[in-house]
Amino acid sequence: MLFKSIIPLAICALSIKPFLAAAATDDDPKPADEKQFAVELNPETFDEAIKAGNVFVKFFAPWCGHCKRLHPLWEQLAEIMNIDEPKVTIAKVDCTKHQTLCADHQVTGYPTLRLFKLGEKESIKFKGTRDLPAITDFINQELNTPAEEDLSEQQQHLDGSETNPNVGKVVDLTEETFAKHVSSGNHFVKFFAPWCSHCQRLAPTWEELAKELIKEPEATISKIDCTQYRSICQDFEVKGYPTLLWIEDGKKIEKYAGARDLSTLKTYVVKMIGAPSGTHDLEDAAKEAPAEAKKQNVLQLNGNEEFEKATGDGIAFVKFYAPWCGHCQKLQPTWEQLATETQAADLGIVFAKVDCTSPENKQICIDQQVEGYPTLFIYKNGQRQKEYDGSRSLPELQAYVRKFIGHDEL
């Protein structure tokens, strides 16, 4: 994964979202009955722990504000991971108590997250965003997961011996089930509040959507109550209700912004997963959508082959982004509009985007010298031009494109 958003590394340098527990002090009070799932290590137990298995350690200071915000998320991760015979143990070290231990492991800011892999001398520092999807993706990538049971489920699916057990119903998610549920596959998730009138109106349509997709095992329809499970909704930057997000393999791909009628929602699912030839209901739904809705104006590039094909001939304007990046999310509708208007004018330019958090795109983003998100490059016959560093407003982007294509129709 490539996470290059630059975050100041002062005393509380790395900005991660809540995950597990810091030690209880007057500065960081905990309810007496709150369970602590992260294993607290000290100089006597540290070496023993990393010799026994994989250990993901949070080095923290109780007074650090970033550490306090990370605390509930770190505990949630530990509750998920610290089971019998875990693939990785979630742990923590209080650097105000064990300064030498922290210094030995190059801890220069709080919190610092390091993965100690069994049998390896050097630890791996986590440099991504401090949210559950990013951290679990990091763990899975470094430890070569999915787990054996997930591989078995995938094989059963390929063999046709088992279909998605959640097809045909809306899956009601909680803090305990969310991470595992969305960790692999395609998921259309409704983030809602029971008191929200828009949510109440959408509820029967959402149930009907799940039923309509009963023949389609490639996606699940689910929901989570943000009044009960606020930390999950905060992790996904939910700021209004209902918020509908498309999530693939634990990563937020995009926020749904279309109409909330059944036909349009079904069409959206078709677009995101592709309609198999045998699902006539889905094909009918796709035919009902306007041609503009089905047209893919911005290409999602995955892997070097697709990237080289898109940029190798003619002019291509490429957005390098991360799904969790706020600036990227703000740019998305403008990018789509720019692509739509440019292609409507038939100006022969390709618009594309590359998710730099995807493992298959990691090397591409390194090779293209992507150092922050979003990064915008125009390519002429495979040659990268100077990075676009102007305003991200539609008129400014249109003017920039005109410079390369020699037209004024935009």
Structural account:
- By secondary structure, the chain is α/β, with parallel strands linked by helices.
- The chain folds into three domains: 39-140, Glutaredoxin; 171-274, 3-Layer(aba) Sandwich (Glutaredoxin); 299-403, Glutaredoxin (3-Layer(aba) Sandwich).
- Helix content is 38%, strand content 19%.
- The protein is built from 15 helices and 15 strands.
- The protein has helices spanning 43-52, 65-81, 99-104, 132-142, 148-159, 175-182, 197-212, 230-235, 262-273, 280-288, 291-294, 304-311, 326-344, 362-367, 394-405, and strands spanning 39-40, 55-60, 89-94, 112-116, 124-125, 170-173, 186-192, 219-225, 243-248, 251-255, 298-301, 315-321, 349-355, 375-380, 383-384.
- The strands form three sheets. Strands 1-3-2-4-5 form a five-stranded mixed sheet, with helices on one face. Strands 6-8-7-9-10 form a five-stranded mixed sheet.
- β7, α7 (197-212) and β8 form a beta-alpha-beta unit.
- It is globular and about 70 Å long.
